[in-house]
């Protein structure tokens, strides 16, 4: 970052500046995704935003793996799932068009994938509740669930993209070509990844200054910051009344973290000295599972309601308090 070279700010100031610099990138990713969806439809548009938006999360996780910070990796990925389906979806419903129709079938399918991830992650997690959760045997035990998650994600995503909505309006084009939209997404994601790396390296100093536990920083701050551009994009799109696209971004991103980002990080971690064991804490798995159940209840009628969005946001706030009280493992 230029300011880091020229001004040499402290780590705390660098963290704040890097976080603020994600705001215009959030706008650009949201803008580019919206224009791309005009060519592809909301389902593919949501997948594009989730994929580009989760790239920084993947990079942050790999950086943390290389630094032997397994608790930060697991916490940030669990927090990413929870913040997407509670905070982002909640704000999108809260600020978007009231009573707008939603693609209940697609959203329910994505939530089912989140449940599948929880079931498979229990295999290495339960043994990790006793003894050292980072032992090598648990990392080896994580390989099977990681491969299974990847296979499920690829199969379900392929089938989902081939399915067309029953009532699909003709696309409206407003000036951006698909090529320009994808190029903008790529540039914004690359810039976000660079800034995310700076954030990781300045987090420790920020944590000490703010007197926060490593677990809280990972599951709340790193999760939100690592997905800030994607979160902002979904909210901007919701404000413009495109609720199908906004909700697809929030929920499909959670499923993508659970079934794509987590297993990729686990498998890639074997290239480093300390491979990652997918031994999540009970509070992490409970937060993911409860969030998915609650969102399923909210979208059961296929309508977006602002008061339900406010309720989802409130539930996330309660989880933030719970994460603060839980402390480190």
Outline the structure in words:
With 329 residues, the chain is mainly α. It has one domain (10-161, 178-326): NCX, central ion-binding region (A middle domain of Talin 1, Up-down Bundle). It contains 13 helices and no strands. The chain has helices at residues 2-6, 11-40, 42-66, 70-95, 104-128, 136-141, 143-162, 178-210, 214-226, 228-239, 243-268, 282-298, 306-326. The longest helix is centred in the middle third of the chain and has 33 residues, at 178-210. It is globular, with a radius of gyration of 19 Å. Residues 1-8 have low confidence and may be disordered.
Beta-strand residue fraction: under 5%
CATH architectural label: Up-down Bundle
Instruction: Summarize the helix and strand pattern as letters.
Output: HHHHHHHHHHHHH
- Work out the helicity level: over 70%
Question: How many distinct helices?
Answer: 13
SS elements, strand count: 0
CATH topology: A middle domain of Talin 1
Residue ranges: pLDDT <50 for 5 or more in a row?
1-8
The CATH superfamily title:
NCX, central ion-binding region
How is this fold's topology laid out?
Blueprint: H1 2-6, H2 11-40, H3 42-66, H4 70-95, H5 104-128, H6 136-141, H7 143-162, H8 178-210, H9 214-226, H10 228-239, H11 243-268, H12 282-298, H13 306-326
Helix pairs in contact: 2-3, 2-8, 2-10, 3-4, 3-8, 3-10, 3-11, 4-9, 4-10, 4-11, 4-12, 4-13, 5-7, 5-11, 5-12, 7-11, 8-9, 9-13, 10-11, 12-13
Q: Brief description of this entry?
A:
This protein has 329 residues and is mostly helical. Helices cover 79% and strands 0% of the residues.
